[in-house]
Amino acid sequence: GITSLLANGVYAAAYPLHDGDYEGENVEFNDRKLLYEEWACYGVFYKYQPIDLVRKYFGEKIGLYFAWLGVYTQMLIPASIVGIIVFLYGCATVDENIPSMEMCDQRQNITMCPLCDKTCSYWKMSSACATARASHLFDNPATVFFSVFMALWGKQGLSGKNIGDDPRFIAEYEARVLEKSLKKESKNKETDKVKLTWRDRFPAYLTNLVSIIFMIAVTFAIVLGVIIYRISMAAALAMNSSPSVRSNIRVTVTATAVIINLVVIILLDEVYGCIARWLTKIEVPKTEKSFEERLIFKAFLLKFVNSYTPIFYVAFFKGRFVGRPGDYVYIFRSFRMEECAPGGCLMELCIQLSIIMLGKQLIQNNLFEIGIPKMKKLIRYLKLKRQSPPDHEECVKRKQRYEVDYNLEPFAGLTPEYMEMIIQFGFVTLFVASFPLAPLFALLNNIIEIRLDAKKFVTELRRPVAVRAKDIGIWYNILRGIGKLAVIINAFVISFTSDFIPRLVYLYMYSKNGTMHGFVNHTLSSFNVSDFQNGTAPNDPLDLGYEVQICRYKDYREPPWSENKYDISKDFWAVLAARLAFVIVFQNLVMFMSDFVDWVIPDIPKDISQQIHKEKVLMVELFMREEQDKQQLLETWMEKERQKEEPPCNHHNPKACPDSLSGPAPSHAYHGGVL
Questions:
Q1: How many other C-beta atoms can be found within 10 angstroms of the C-beta atom of residue 472?
Q2: What band does 161 get if pLDDT is binned at 50, 70 and 90?
Q3: Which intervals carry biased composition (Basic and acidic residues) (predicted)?
Q4: In a shared domain, residues 63 and 104
Q5: 629 in the same domain as 585
Q6: 296 with 472: CB under 8 angstroms?
Q7: Do residues 486 and 619 both lie within one domain?
Q8: For residues 476 and 62, is the Cβ–Cβ distance under 8 A?
Q9: Both 631 and 486 in a single domain?
Q10: What proportion of the chain, given as a percentage, has pLDDT over 70?
């Protein structure tokens, strides 16, 4: 078929033609022009998409993508509203937050231990006032409610069916089978049906496994390199003579490190996408569906690791394995592990998530989608103009439709379109406890994304081959997996990354007056500066203007005057037990509420269910009517055949007339009736 001819280079391309031009003065009205005017323009962003026309023009598979994208964007509206309310609640209560007020109170005179060896000196906790106040905007009691809401939001509206198989064969598969059959025929002269076995594919499978492990290792190595950069940059800035620079070390290091992460993520996303496609091609899948599913699995695995590894590090690893003053943990015996700010790592997680999410949406999803097709189109135009005769404009006017469409970009599948939305869905659900405004920015992006994708399909791409589909296919399973993972991750973010649980424990177990006064002092341990290891004490111990005997650090440990100095205290185990209990309660609560919502709210609304039932009844009635018509037609035909077989009834042959017989009818009359 055409796939073999494409694989052998007989044809350069095969594609359906567009209906006609979409803009111009004398352009005839067509579906493409209608889609361009009513769907692919940014000015109609407030209108519903003409999904039926999209389905008619591009097929069910692409129509389902845009239908899903529209529903997903609509679902972001309530999530955005709740996120804005949570953020505004944090803004309204920031001046009433006692822990941040204590951290900003210079009268507390809390001296903190150095953030790095030698070059860093002691510092005042009040210098982290801005970070503490900003943390309350996202780390407040409303965040827990929002996390439960988003966990339920992410688990609703999904339907679990698989996509219909796309029976079209891959061109490379046809070529490989043809090559194998020719070799077999030349050797054994056998003409049996040939197919590729696991032995034919084993080298490709081995290459896939090694390549994926190597690329994941590269991602981890880059994250480790950024961690070392953060540690080194913090130490270098600590030696700066400017007080303003030293007071903003955390913000400077975090912002620059996140920008580096963003650039690396965008570059590796493009590289990993190309590598995933190449790895899938060398496997030589048989059908389009098999090719697409294997490509999606590889691309999603690599891009998931690439996009979320830096965020996972800040959320769950930073500040967990630092040790304590006098006994710190080092990387390569020279780089001391990073610590979280006194207010926790949640604010840094918010910065990390917001910059990566907004950067990916702005640069990768929008600028790349607009800029790269425009550049390719310009290059093709200049190349064509250079190769064409002087009367190039007249030549263009005389071009046939297939020649005009050939200059458009080939359709590369929906995998990139779905992938960027799935990664965005992960940003919106997985770490939403640290950034309640994530749904709002996703909503604004998707309003543009729908029209951007529509314009690309109508104006920049060759018309795709229409493919049948019942739903969004394997992407549903990925969405469902992310929705379940979001429940677990948000539970751990609230319990381990934020200070929500330590505040509750202090309020109900240690507070003397039932308020949060004294919470900051409760979370800090004491360290005697005489216990520093050799070569790790600050070079300038008098940087604050006085001699420091005891410095503070965030941890639950015994004081230096205790018998078991610097050991883990009982408070640590109480907080840990509460954190683990919260994870269990949060997950079970969300699961129960999700099942309850599923029971209360059916997947299909009642009016639609009744309409579907009515359509089924009408279909059955139509089917029965057609069967009755067929039966009547068959009986009429059989009657005519019987009459043809019977001899004419006249006076020359009276025996042929049934009325003249007193006995049973002749046997051939019954045979005619049976036949």
A1: 23
A2: very low
A3: 640-649
A4: yes
A5: no
A6: no
A7: no
A8: no
A9: no
A10: 86
Are 466 and 55 in contact by the 8 Å Cβ rule? The answer is no
Give the chain's largest Cα–Cα span.
Answer: 142
- What are the structure tokens assigned to 281, written together? 């091609």
Q: Which residue has the tokens 């018998």?
A: 563
Separation between Cα atoms, residue 2 and residue 14, nearest integer Å: 8
Report the candidate in 74, 55, 14, 68 with the shortest Cα–Cα distance to residue 417. 68
Question: 275 lies in a domain?
Answer: yes
Cα–Cα distances (Å) from 95 to 100, 130, 133, 136, 514, in that order, read: 8, 12, 8, 10, 19
Q: State the Cα–Cα distance between residues 640 and 635, nearest whole angstrom.
A: 9
Count of the separate structural domains present in the chain? 2
Look at residues 281, 9, 274, 277 and name the one whose alpha carbon lies nearest to residue 172: 281
N- to C-terminal Cα distance for the chain? 42
Instruction: Give CA separation, 405 vs 393, 414, 452, 462, in Å.
Output: 17, 19, 20, 6
C-alpha 375/C-alpha 22 separation (Å) is 20
DSSP, collapsed to helix, strand or coil, labels residue 534 as coil
Domain that holds residue 617: 605-638
Structure tokens at 149: 């809401």
Which 3 state secondary structure label does DSSP give 25?
coil
Strands (E) across 295-444 are located at 323-324, 327-328, 330-331, 335-336
Does position 190 have pLDDT exceeding 70, yes or no? no
Residue 624 is classified by DSSP as: H
pLDDT tens-digit profile of 264-313?
999 998 899 889 989 988 887 777 778 888 889 999 999 999 999 999 99
- Determine the Cα–Cα distance for residues 151 and 591; give it in Å rounded to an integer: 9
Task: Name the residue with tokens 């111990």.
Answer: 541
Could you read off the pLDDT of 390-426 as tens digits, one per residue? 555 555 556 788 888 888 888 888 888 899 899 999 9
What digits encode the pLDDT tens for the residues 109-139? Answer: 788 888 888 888 888 888 888 888 888 888 8
